Amino acid sequence: MVLQKRLGYEFNGYQVPNVPRGSRSTRGKRCVRKRVVENDMCAFELLASVAGELLLEKESSPAQSDTITGGSNPMFSKDKVKEEQDDGLNSYEDELRGQKSCDHVSRASKIGFQGQEHGCIFTECLHPSSIVIISDPSEKVTFAEESVFSRNKSEFARSPRPDQGKFMEDRIPTPPQFERQKNADGIVPSPCFSEDLMEVDIKPPPLVSSSSSIETSPKSGSHMEYAAGIADYEKSSSCNQTVIVDRRIRKLLASKFWKVGPTLLKDGDFSDKDEDVKPLFYSRKMCYKRQRTQKFSFKRKKLFQRGSISSCDLPYNGEGLSCSPEIHIKGEASSSETGVHGGNGTSSSPGAQKFAFDSDDYHVKLSIKSFKVPELFIEIPETATIGSLKRTVMEAVTAILGGGLRIGVHLQGRSDELESLRFTLEPNSLQSPKPLISNNEDAPLLPISPPPAARRRGSQPGQLSSQGGHHSAGGEAEPPDSKALVPVPAADAEALAVFPLHGKSRRSETGQRRVRRPFSVSEVEALVHAVEKLGTGRWRDVKICAFDSAKHRTYVDLKDKWKTLVHTARISPQRRRGEPVPQELLDRVLSAHAYWSQQQAKAEPCPRLT
DNA sequence: TTTAGGG
DNA sequence: CCCTAAA
Predict the structure, then answer these.
(1) Is A161 inside a domain boundary?
(2) Is the model's pLDDT at A527 over the cut of 90?
(3) Domain tally for chain A?
(4) CA pair distance A437, A441, nearest whole angstrom
(5) How far is the CA of A494 from the C1' of B5 (A)?
(6) Which CATH number fits the domain that encloses residue A566?
């Protein structure tokens, strides 16, 4: 039984238009950056949210006697699924079809949770596969997968102990912040809000909200908000399980756009500066940072040192290339053997619904089916091939996901249609270790403009040979630069702001190396003709005369081309590369060059003789 | 801004 | 193609 829900997490990918140098407005950049930040969300948040929704659905479900895995639960019924699919939310079942195995996905994102009345959901995000939702650790904690409390968490036993609740309560004092909330709302604060636990990266409830009221003002009635979604799950063992989730999650899930916490979790948003209070949320940030920043700090630093990457500037080559990697999400709920014992009493949560579970415990297993990786800045050399691109993309995404998922990269589009070139990421079947890069993908991917960092490095850019690949990039080793990819999580936009993105960014104006556009024969023809007429010292005139409409050809380009033409004409045909230029043209090049050189020589030493 | 040349 | 000193 699988609950399938297409999640609306999408990165509102942006693409800075190919604005002429120096004409990009500051305002435009600010907009870009803003969007990046607002769309930030990471996988574990997503999973946690899904878990929240599952609980909500469960709560609202009339079929209370079903276990989460129950097939008769409307929420998980095929009809429901179908309905969502018909709703245009996409059928990822179809998408998933063809995948040999998604077991790893399920495993990777398994979430174990256990609730108790008035508990809170926490997610741990040390690793995508270690997401844990804890509801009221004072009672017990169920771990999914590995022990997520790897640090400072030794107190928590993997298997719940009868006395654990007491154990926790004895050790952990209730922070003042939630004492207040308790007073205000009459809700018993969870002991898990302790410094002790906060230090271990416990994340706050994965609340998703379009308004900042919840996240930003935990002490002003926010608990009410939290409690609004309380759902009590009464197990057959009479253990009450309560998980607090935000009802809005569901609504938001329905929408395609999630505005996520990070933006709202600025320190300044907390009116209470008490260090005992902040850690809960603060740790979330830290956790996030560990997940993201730490991983990429090296590469990012490297790139920035070379001044090739900006958090808000052209991530692309300005030619329309963009990467929209996708991962897919699938959710499922199932029972589990991870027994949780202890717990007692009945739920006292008003209005809370109760559910009886056949098993002692249950897990909500979530598997990511589809979500868009926030953003990927990938640096590739001019000589990049589809294959190297794929490798790069895969590497980046894998890094983002912390290796919790195996990602397969599927190329969409053709290398000769870079405008539509995309990569789709899918869970990589464990049993199909097929090479990720096929040979036919190692064709040169020329039109892609590599960032400046690729410049002045390594070998000369290979010539693009439209006819045959005597220059096939076949054995082309992937240049080091191609690995210098930088996923730029939106959350790090702030941190990245350290770099020169105030005012005018160098990169946005001069950084992007232009796309290489070899001169065609006809262009050479036009150039030769113009030079024959105007000479070799009036490139501006040549430009106006023969390439006025060719925006991408500057007079410098023409001058350079003439230079190479002269060189080409002088070398043996065997040494020439690229699209062959008719010998006739080359002859004219030589003669014209000789003529105008002579004219120039004549004019210089003795102008009056002309 | 253009030229002229080196990288 | 890029970068730039010079003009």
Answers:
(1) no
(2) yes
(3) 1
(4) 7
(5) 42
(6) 1.10.246.220
